[in-house]
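Weekly puzzle thread! Below is a chain. First person to post its structure in token form gets bragging rights.
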Amino acid sequence: MTRTDTTDDGFRRERFTDRDGVGYDRIFQTEYRGSGFATGTYATPDVEYEYTLVGDDDLTLRTMDARGGRRGGVIGERGDHVVFWLTRGRLVMHFADRTRVVEPGSPYIASASEAYRFESDGTVYNGLHIADAFLRRVARDLGYRMPDGPLLFDQQDDVVARREPLRRLVRELGPTLLDDRVRGAMRTSLNRRLASVVLDSFPLRDRGGDGPVASRLRDAIAFIEDHARDRPTVPAIAAAAGLSERGLQEVFARTLGVTPNGFLRDHRLDEVRRELLRGHAPNSVLEVARRWRFTNPSRFAVAYRARFGEDPSETLRAATAAQPDGRSSWRIRRAVAYIEAHADGPCRIGDVAAAAGLRPRRLQQLFREERGVTPTAFLREVRRERHAGRSGGPGSGPTAR
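Winning reply:
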């Protein structure tokens, strides 16, 4: 049966699974006290699922691991905003004015006041449910202007999403938040940190001329990325984002866990590494370092080693040591080799990323940069050309890019 642990201070831990004979609609009946906000929810007989949650009335961490079959239903207005991301599968959400297809990648937010119909297939879901009243309290404490009506959020801009501020914080705080002993003021403090990042990184709609902080964070990151070689000052970054210097420092600390100058330095180091991995300067590491305004060789080497765990010369040697296509870095060559070796059977992106020593999102980014396609598209191409070869068609493998 469903396992439920609830305490007087609002903390609870619950688990729903088909293995205990719990019907899929039981999740919604139990979670929302039979309010009827969910209608027509269903799971086909072949679905296997496990849904877990832990947290309090302000914020809960949740997971859904569903395999086989399909699930669906209509979710009405509710008291909490849902921020989630998929690590597997596909979800389609039909709102009154739009349809959204959600696939593994960036976090997605569903505002509390928006109803939607959903259909999903084989999803693994991780997310946060944040009470609207709690989110408003945090916003007021931060000095944010909130609308009197419903809070309606837009999705993260790509500039912010690729920095993964929310997932970074969830990875940091998750073990503590999952600890049953963390209650009261300590849990509230952790909840507030997560709520602050949601407010900082998801723009509110219908703000008129009052630009949401999320948009200003986006503008600050974009300005740094566009002008990194010029090493812009904090006042210049703040002015470009429409923030005070103190406001810029605070939003970077809350959301990205780093100062603006630290973010700029890390971005320049990342760009140096990107060039070294692509073999852009086979004769000189310092040539690349100077291009990104690292003028002190010893300090540059120390900073590079601290960030990436190896000397820049090691990166360059690995990148230029046997490049069969003359372009790809060694990690992407390793990913290509894994795909080619496993193309005739199951070949999941997570496994490809692990073989390359990368996170899935980083694998996607580097693969597109270095080969011009996504790993999934490359896998399809390998399979298509192998099938053509077995059928007597031309070609025996994908053309190197």
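Puzzle host: Confirmed. Bonus trivia for everyone else. The first strand starts at residue 3 and ends at 6.
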